[in-house]
Every structure is written in C-alpha cells, then in structure tokens.
Amino acid sequence: MPVQGMRRLGREALVSEALTHLAANPQASMIELSQSIGVGRTTLYRHFGDREALVGAAALLGARRFGEAVMKARPGEGTGLAALERICAELFTLPDVLTLLFADNPIITDESFAEAAAESRSGAESSTCAESGDAEDDPLEAVIAKGQADGSIDEGVPIGWAAAFVYLTIGSGHLYSVSVGVDDPTARAQSLELTIRAVRKTLASPGG
C-alpha cells in the first residue's frame, strides 16, 4: 500500500478496527491486519508489541461492548422476561463481537469478560452496576432472578441453566444469520425474532 494511502489512527481506533477485521479473518497475521486497517505494520507493533497483545486488546474491547449492550438494554426496567428480550436485541447489533465470541476458537473468552468486569469494578462506572447485587458479574443471571421474582420467568428453571440457554440461543441465532448473510437486514431481523421467540417460549412463566 502506498504511503499516501496510510491512515493515522490512535490506539483505541486501531483496536476497534482490529476487532472488525478479526471477525472476518480470525487467523489474520499482523501484516494482514495492518493492510486491512490501512496502517503500516510498524504502527501495530509500536502500539501493541505483538499479535497476541493486539488480539487481547480486541477481545477486551469486545467483552466491554457486550457488557455495555446489556446495560443499554435497561435490565432494571419492566419485567425480567422483557429485559431478556431487549438484551437479545441489543446484542444482535454487535455481529463482530458475537462472531468472535461464538467462533470454534473464540477470541473473546471468559478471561476477556473477567478482565472487563474487574476493570469496571475498579473504575468510577462500577456504581452503575450496583443494582445487580450478588450477580453483578453475570447480568443475565441477575435479570433471570428478577424475572422469577416478578413472575415473568418460570421459577422452576434453574437460573444458571436459563442464563446458559439465553447465551447459547443468542449464539445460535447469530450463527444462523451469518450462514445466510449477516449483512442481510431481513435475515438478521428474522434471526433475532426466532431467538426472542425461543427465549420467550422456553423461559416464560406458565401463568404469564
């Protein structure tokens, strides 16, 4: 790539761009990433040192965005079941994050979420999550517990099982969308609708 085609990006922008390109090619080398992003290879090495550090930064950003999407869904408002449906909708707006999370060899891992949670607890923003109580590190479990308390979610379903079901159903819906064309808004909307329908059908309280 000619010099005049190079972009000047700060560290945060580089991480965001790397996340996008890793979703398209998880095995991309530093050379391939620099070419896709439109910066010199030395720029990436200067900011991150090696590929592992860059991938780790992208994974942390993905975990942060996942958490931000959950909070954007207003988990404390309305019934627990309605909050779960909003969470599904918000997470579906992050196809790159979901791709890196549900890949055969995921880049966003439990360690990424643990690091993001620790970062949040140590920062000033941690107070915004205080309402989650003991389930602060697993907002899905907190929302499900809330739903069981308000009668919108079946009390007979173990909270941990329900959280895993929601998580995996979001992944299944996303991967189906990818298989038919993640850039197709109609297919994406259908996948989200099916995901929400599955969550509602499985977890809704029988008397709800």
What is the overall number of helices? Answer: 10
CATH architecture of the domain at 61-123 and 136-203: Orthogonal Bundle
SSE-based structural type: mainly alpha
Distance between the termini: 60 Å
Sheet with most strands: none
Mean pLDDT level: 89
Rg for CA atoms: 19 Å
CATH superfamily of the domain at 61-123 and 136-203: Tetracycline Repressor, domain 2
Give an overview of the whole structure.
The protein has 208 residues and is an all-alpha fold. It has a domain at 61-123 and 136-203: Tetracycline Repressor, domain 2, CATH 1.10.357.10. The chain is 66% helix and 0% strand. The protein has helices spanning 11-24, 30-37, 41-48, 51-72, 80-91, 95-101, 110-122, 139-150, 159-181, 185-203. Helix 2 packs across helix 3, helix 3 (41-48) crosses helix 4 and helix 4 packs across helix 6 (95-101). The longest helix has 23 residues, at 159-181. It is elongated and about 60 Å long. It starts with 10 loop residues before the first helix and ends in a 5-residue tail after the last helix. 34% of the residues are buried.
What is the topology?
Blueprint: H1 11-24, H2 30-37, H3 41-48, H4 51-72, H5 80-91, H6 95-101, H7 110-122, H8 139-150, H9 159-181, H10 185-203
DNA-binding region: 29-48
GO molecular function, one term: DNA-binding transcription factor activity
Organism: Brevibacterium aurantiacum
Quick rundown:
With 208 residues, the chain is mainly alpha-helical.
Key traits:
single chain, 208 residues, Tetracycline Repressor, domain 2, transcription regulation, Transcriptional regulator, TetR family, DNA-binding
